[in-house]
Predict the structure.
Amino acid sequence: MISQISIYAENRKGAMSAITRILAGGGINIHSFVTNDSAEFGIIRMLVSDTEKACGLLRDAGYLFKKTRVMAVAIPDEPGSLDRLLDCIERANINIDYLYTSFERDSAGPVIAIHADDMDELETFLKGNGFHCQA
């Protein structure tokens, strides 16, 4: 499993660039991110090159954030591969909280970042069904 950072940010103009500026200034590469918003605050979930350093930079800048484990599952870059992954998870009766796409740096193949209600069960089940779960 890999570490993800969930940053809680005010839903206002320039909020995202303030965060990316802090991370860029610290030499942190953002590999993937997804944003979810509400009227006043949003959640920015990120996979970055150095999670611990990024957490320190965000903490120093006064951001509220949480480090969470997510599963990174490599899938083929072809039609139906995401469907096969989701079908497998459904058969295991595991609830997915959220997911988003990233890419493996060396192969440029798709990687699905998944957070579920039981991460250990998810990992065991996916590996047992032939999926490659990245650490």
Remarks:
- Residues 71 and 119 are 7 Å apart (CA to CA).
